[in-house]
Amino acid sequence: MRSPLISAAVAVAAVIALSPLSPASAADPADIGDISCHGGSLTVQFDPGITFAKNTVRLSANGELGICSSAAHPKITGGTVRIEASLTAVCPGPIGPGYAKVTISWNDGSRTVINQSTFRGDAQSFSMEGGSISDGTFAGGTARAHGRTTSNLVELGAACVLGGITSYTASIDGLDVGDI
Asked: Taking Cα atoms as reference points, which of 128, 127, 83, 129 lies closest to residue 102?
């Protein structure tokens, strides 16, 4: 005959073994939500300027996201974005690919930080893909964006020859963040 202590231990072990477990750190996609933005603009700066010689440059970009919509976060209708990266670049491209840190400040006062999003581009377009949202609204999700250069391409070509492209402007044709 078993002692009451052993019977209790066996019962506890059985309950623990049969209990469903889920990772404590994994975010439920239904809780993350998502948001889509379009019609924004971005000013991109390079230091040093991008020339015909392949070089590592510091990219910093700031912009407005345009019109945003989210069923999970209906109060968010827009925001600003800041992108920081160190990339290998050459005129007229490619720029990157390389990892970028993206910080979005939403119009409702919340914030999203995306680490290690892959940035790539050239003199005509850019894209960002992936990365993990580590902090703020949509934490646990990912992101992607794409846009087109709105600067004069002839002037950008001349800048390649005359000391390097130090800045350009671009549209943000699409930005998706969260459970995408």
From this structure: 83
User: Residue 12: helix, strand or coil by DSSP?
Assistant: helix
Q: CA 12, CA 127: separation in Å to the nearest integer?
A: 53
Residue by residue, DSSP assigns 128-172 as EE--EEEEETTTT-EEEEEEEB-S-HHHHHHHHHTT-EEEEEEEE
Q: What is the pLDDT of residue 135?
A: 85
**Which pTM was predicted?**
0.81
Task: State the pLDDT at residue 134.
Answer: 86
Q: What confidence score (pLDDT) does residue 140 get?
A: 92
Q: How far apart are CA 163 and CA 160, in angstroms?
A: 6
CA distance 141 to 51: 36
In angstroms, the CA 142 to CA 49 distance is 30
Low-confidence ranges of the chain (pLDDT < 70): 1-31
φ, ψ of residue 171 to 5 degrees: the values are -90, 150
Cβ distance 10 to 3 under 8 Å? no
136 touches 92 (CB < 8 A): no
Rg (C-alpha) for the chain, rounded Å, is 23
Tokens of 10: 């066996």
